[in-house]
Design a protein that fits this description.
Helix content: 25-40%
Number of domains: 3
Low-confidence stretches: none
Mean pLDDT: 89
CATH class of the largest domain: Alpha Beta
Largest sheet: 6 strands, mixed
CATH architecture of the largest domain: 3-Layer(aba) Sandwich
CATH topology of the largest domain: Rossmann fold
Number of helices: 11
Number of strands: 13
Strand content: 15-25%
Length: 331
């Protein structure tokens, strides 16, 4: 399973600027996720941006009062070369619609460049350029809580669906009961979750179910830790092991965990991938094994070979060969 965060997207855009022709005056984001890509592109290159609807209407977003330049004050009529950008492309329907709408707006095709940051394939008839090949199955930081994969996932509650309790709130008493009733939502899903797996104690099931209902969270099963107290949970250090045991037995293909250390532990114990919200990393058993092997490599040749193996694991063979071809070889 492939995963890309907002940090990854920003880096991918920066790495691929050289592949675009010079003189781009405007970047147009295809709503909704394409606006994120367009914003990052606009800030990196210091050019104007707009969304597709505004572009068709002949409008450009204002640029604020910082980083002013003559290039940031152009009207639509002054735009010579325009990049229409989406975060990703799979079947190509969104890009096809963007091309139709741009043509209907009367903008010359010679002025337009159509691109996507991530693509399932390297080439599309609908796009002039795909920055990075990321095959299916894939998830993005900005769509994970709206993705069909939630129906095959275990999801933590605190730190994922809602903010974690503060130290004062986490008293296993009146303050904690108040927190459970009034927890602030963090990432509210729009699809059904297969399993909610939480280290909250079983005795707090009624309060947890009430909060989930109030937020409209749809789920198949709520799995809670059946221990008498917070103190006992801490004594047994049961958080990660409890989650990993259920995940390993289940048919889930992904666990979405709030804390990095717990995510690493769950991946180790379950032998399955874990997405960490805190670090925005997809932690796989293979990567953990390779990391351990890298630590144990005692020679530069051994470390180099291990790094190559890690790169192939993360990027895939095609991505690895592409990266290799772009790296400068020492003289």
């Amino acid at each position: 399973m492939h995963y890309r965060s907002i940090v990854d997207m920003n880096a991918t855009i920066a790495r691929n600027l050289h592949r675009l022709p010079g003189g781009i005056d405007l970047v147009v984001g295809i709503p909704r996720s394409g606006m994120l890509a367009a914003n990052l592109f606009s800030l990196t290159t210091n050019i104007q941006m707009t969304d597709l609807d505004s572009f068709v209407a002949g409008k450009v977003f204002s640029s604020g009062i910082t980083k002013r330049s003559a290039a940031l004050g152009r009207t639509m009529a002054e735009m010579r070369r325009i990049l229409i950008l989406d975060d990703s492309i799979n079947g190509g329907s969104a890009m096809r619609e963007a091309r139709v709408r741009a043509a209907a707006a009367g903008v010359s095709r010679d002025q337009l460049i159509f691109a996507a940051v991530y693509g399932t394939y390297e080439r599309y008839d609908e796009a002039d350029l795909v920055f990075e090949l990321v095959p299916q199955p894939r998830l993005f930081q900005w769509n994970i809580m709206h993705h069909k994969f939630l129906g095959q996932s275990c999801v933590d509650i605190d730190g994922v669906l809602c903010f974690d309790p503060t130290h004062l709130e986490n008293d296993d008493g009146p303050a904690y009961l108040s927190f459970l009733a009034q927890a602030r939502p963090l990432h509210v899903p729009t699809r059904k979750i297969a399993y909610l797996v939480t280290s909250r104690l079983e005795k707090y099931r009624p309060q947890t179910e009430a909060w989930l209902a109030s937020q409209g969270v749809d789920y198949g099963e709520l799995v809670m830790l059946d221990l008498p107290s917070k103190a006992e949970r801490q004594r047994l250090a049961a958080h990660g092991r409890f989650k990993a045991d259920f995940y390993k037995r289940s048919d889930a293909v992904l666990f979405i965990e709030s804390e990095h250390d717990q995510a690493v532990n769950i991946a180790k114990l379950s032998g399955k991938p874990v997405l960490c919200i805190e670090s925005q990393l997809m932690i796989s058993p293979d990567m953990l094994w390779l990391s351990e092997q890298l630590k144990q490599a005692t020679t530069s040749e051994g470390r180099k070979a291990m790094l190559k193996t890690m790169a192939r694991t993360v990027l895939g063979e095609t991505g690895y060969q592409t990266l290799k071809s772009r790296m400068r070889k020492p003289a």
